[in-house]
């Protein structure tokens, strides 16, 4: 009969807890999640492109196809400090998953303790101890030592999946960090390749200046001879001499740029300043392969920054669930078993020194839940913010590709025209020099023709560099580089 009464009380207590939980559950606020708009146009231009062939499918080594550049990038992927820093962040995010996972598993601890206690004789405990004999004629020890050893466990029951959602959130944050690392790899490869092509362009500019100086020095010698023969004046000599000084000064400026770009590459490779190996002789003649952009929807899976924003959005959704679970009761079970005695020789005596306990707790917020409400509202605001970040990243990716596609087309048209300009001015230099030597053209015609030819060659090199940089940017905008 007594056993029946105990079970009945237990049943009523459990029913009351469940009822209270349901009441508190109904009092928890609820808001609709904002969904992200991921719809993109079918193509990047007015003409709809349905071809899914995408240059991003090429491994970066196959895309660049330059042994010196590949060596530089390989070194950077190992030694770049910023990349190594973010790799440690990835490791920390992975450790956070393990920490969150451990929170919804039972905690089991082992402990041992020793203490000495002296209580006042005129207290209830002291008076009782004074009147207690351990054995006939043997009083209770004073001061009283106490020794204990045992195993203790606690377990928070994850009824509302708060802890599991917290672990899933940590997984999303980890995946977001991995994509952040991938995005850094893409940008690092792009930055090294761009600097490499800038270096090659500077080498060609320096070579053009050297060639032009050779022509100008020859012209200067010619006009000096003409002056001696009274067929030219000192004015022509000084004007050509000034142009030589100008180009000599420009040569040193280009040499300084070469040093700075080399050291920029060295910094990205995590090494001290040194020569950067490259082959620049065939820079102008380099053929450019066709870029295939695929379809815009491929950006959602290829771009690491879009995937990172997507994982951040998923983490924000889980954060709302975690914040909402704070409105509900939490259930905890605590238990312990061990031995305790005032003398070490009694410590393992059983059952006299055996102790154990089992406790079940339920705690729920009842009054003044403002902090919980504020955190829940903040979680919802962060989710909306993550939606806008995701949409912004998608839109930015689409516009970057569309702009670069137009840039590549216009640069190709510009390069063709500049190539024709260089060819025409190169021919005019030969004609002008012949006329000048036969006194049928003055020094100003020689000077202006050489100056125009120099500028056109410099512009051609600059346009070729911009073409190569545009290809690198397009590869990065499409999401290439991070795949192994």
TrEMBL record:
Keywords: Coiled coil, Lipoprotein, Membrane, Palmitate, Signal, Transmembrane, Transmembrane beta strand. It holds the Pfam family OEP. Its main location: membrane. The keyword tRNA processing does not apply. It is a lipid-anchor. GO terms for cellular component: plasma membrane. One of its GO terms (molecular function) is efflux transmembrane transporter activity. Residues 408-471 form a coiled coil. The keyword Ligase does not apply. Gene3D superfamilies: Outer membrane efflux proteins (OEP). Belongs to the outer membrane factor (OMF) (TC 1.B.17) family. It is found in: Cell membrane. It comes from Hanstruepera neustonica. This is RND transporter. Residues 1-28 form the signal peptide. InterPro entries: MdtP/NodT-like (IPR010131), OMP_efflux (IPR003423).
């Amino acid at each position: 009969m007594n056993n029946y009464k105990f079970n009945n009380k237990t049943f009523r207590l459990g029913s009351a807890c469940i009822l209270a939980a349901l009441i508190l559950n109904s009092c928890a606020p609820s808001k609709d999640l904002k969904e992200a708009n991921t719809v993109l146009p079918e193509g990047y231009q007015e003409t709809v492109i349905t071809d899914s062939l995408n240059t991003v499918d090429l491994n970066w080594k196959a895309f660049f196809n330059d042994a010196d550049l590949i060596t530089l990038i390989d070194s950077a992927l190992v030694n770049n400090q910023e990349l190594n820093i973010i790799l440690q962040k990835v490791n920390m995010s992975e450790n956070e998953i393990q920490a969150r996972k451990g929170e919804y598993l039972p905690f089991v601890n082992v402990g041992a303790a020793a203490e000495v206690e002296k209580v006042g004789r005129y207290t209830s405990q002291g008076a009782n101890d004074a009147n207690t004999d351990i054995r006939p004629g043997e009083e209770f020890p004073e001061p009283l030592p106490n020794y204990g050893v045992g195993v203790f466990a606690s377990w928070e029951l994850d009824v509302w999946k708060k802890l599991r959602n917290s672990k899933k959130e940590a997984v999303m944050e980890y995946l977001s960090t991995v994509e952040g690392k991938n995005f850094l790899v893409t940008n690092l490869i792009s930055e090294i390749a761009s600097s490499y092509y800038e270096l090659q362009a500077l080498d060609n500019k320096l070579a053009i200046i050297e060639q032009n100086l050779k022509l100008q020095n020859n012209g200067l010698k010619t006009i000096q001879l003409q002056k001696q023969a009274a067929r030219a004046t000192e004015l022509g000599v000084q004007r050509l001499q000034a142009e030589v000084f100008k180009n000599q000064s420009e040569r040193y400026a280009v040499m300084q740029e070469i040093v700075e770009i080399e050291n920029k590459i060295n910094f990205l490779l995590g090494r001290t300043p040194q020569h950067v190996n490259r082959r620049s002789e065939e820079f102008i003649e380099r053929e450019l392969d066709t870029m295939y952009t695929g379809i815009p929807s491929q950006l959602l899976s290829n771009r690491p920054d879009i995937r990172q924003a997507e994982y951040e959005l998923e983490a924000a959704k889980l954060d709302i669930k975690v914040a909402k679970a704070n409105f509900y009761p939490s259930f905890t079970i605590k238990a312990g078993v061990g031995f305790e005695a005032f003398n070490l020789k009694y410590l393992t005596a059983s059952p006299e020194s055996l102790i154990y306990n089992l406790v079940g707790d339920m705690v729920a917020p009842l009054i003044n839940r403002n902090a919980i409400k504020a955190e829940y509202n903040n979680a919802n605001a962060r989710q909306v913010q993550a939606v806008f970040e995701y949409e912004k990243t998608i839109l930015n990716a689409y516009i970057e590709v569309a702009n670069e596609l137009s840039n590549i087309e216009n640069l190709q048209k510009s390069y063709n025209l500049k190539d024709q300009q260089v060819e025409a001015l190169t021919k005019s230099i030969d004609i002008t020099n012949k006329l000048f030597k036969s006194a049928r053209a003055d020094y100003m015609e020689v000077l202006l023709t050489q100056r125009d030819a120099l500028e056109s060659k410099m512009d051609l090199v600059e346009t070729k560099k911009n073409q190569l940089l545009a290809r690198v940017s397009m590869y990065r905008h499409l999401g290439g580089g991070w795949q192994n």
